[in-house]
Amino acid sequence: MTTALKSPQPNEACTTGIGSLPHHNVDAALEFSFRMDVPFLPQIPIRNPWEYMIAQGLEGLPGLEADHEGNVSLNVPLWESRTAAFRDQLESAFETMAEPQSFERFELHPSVSSSWQAFLFELEERGIKRAKIQIVGPMTAQWALRLKDSAGQSIDTVPGLSSQIYRLVLARAIAMVRRLKSLGIEPLIYLDEPGLYGLSLANPKHLLGISELKIMLQTLKQEGAITGIHCCSNTNWDVLLGFASSGLNILSIDTALSLESLLSEGRSQKVAAFLENGGRLSLGVIPTARSSALRSLKCETLFEDLVATLIQAWPNEPKRVQTILSTSIYTPACGLAFHSVDDAELVLDALSEFRKLAGSR
Length: 361
Fold this sequence. Notes:
Blueprint: E1 14-15, H1 26-33, H2 53-58, E2 64-66, E3 72-74, H3 76-95, H4 116-126, E4 130-136, H5 138-144, E5 146-147, H6 161-182, E6 186-192, H7 204-222, E7 226-231, H8 237-241, E8 250-254, H9 255-262, H10 268-276, E9 280-286, H11 291-295, H12 299-313, H13 318-327, E10 329-332, H14 341-360
Parallel strand pairs: 1-10, 3-5, 4-6, 6-7, 7-8, 8-9, 9-10
Antiparallel strand pairs: 2-3
């Protein structure tokens, strides 16, 4: 059985998970999570499709429906009949946000997170001082939601819906952060934004979404969270690196898919500036696209490929390369819900070995 290495200091290399797991019960999922250096909140969609990230993040939105694959749609007439009351709940929370309990009603409910309460209990029992949580990002949440029986109409055709989604995701994130802080635990919160592959700076609504994302990062930073964005696709990396001034601490990527893109076109200096200003890379170094690839995985090869890519970006800065290796957060490339438990064990073993390689470089 793999066990976590000695708990690293806050800025040392460490391992954690992205979120979803293939386990069938909460105890097994938690046992897996707590073998990471930084325990993470497990999502177990095989038990309940509402534990897929978008359904979980938007739970409570009037008229929301989720299918067995986690796809979400909105019954617009039902939303319209109940939106005023729900809007009042959100407004009340934000108007009284100085009060510690103002967002409690938006905390994860057992109906969409079978692990949340048990996760909190285990963190407190074990005296864990740092933990990683995650929630769907507001842009992906808005772009992924479909209107039921609408012949492909966008949510933008429903006045007030986009802003309500944004405020709900923010309220839920604040509630989760505050709960961890109340237990004396430093929260690392990743906003999961795979939808950013479609980001277009020529689209005014996307520009609004970027502004809202900045506000969310700033708000969560003020709440005392370490903030991250996870994007397991290529996007406009200049935009995300620009979020550093808005409170972004961690940039989480699929290394095989995105690291070369992140460091290309002279962008390495922007990455260097992000790191010098206290930013950190969360590198999805273990590929999760195919189960067969996990069984033939060679960590030494993956590690040397990572080193080679970093050296290519900074050929005359070996100290910078070493700093990145010794301070990065190492994760699977994506969630593990579509894998087997045996696959998850292979990922855990590989991450442990990868961190050892990084520490011995």
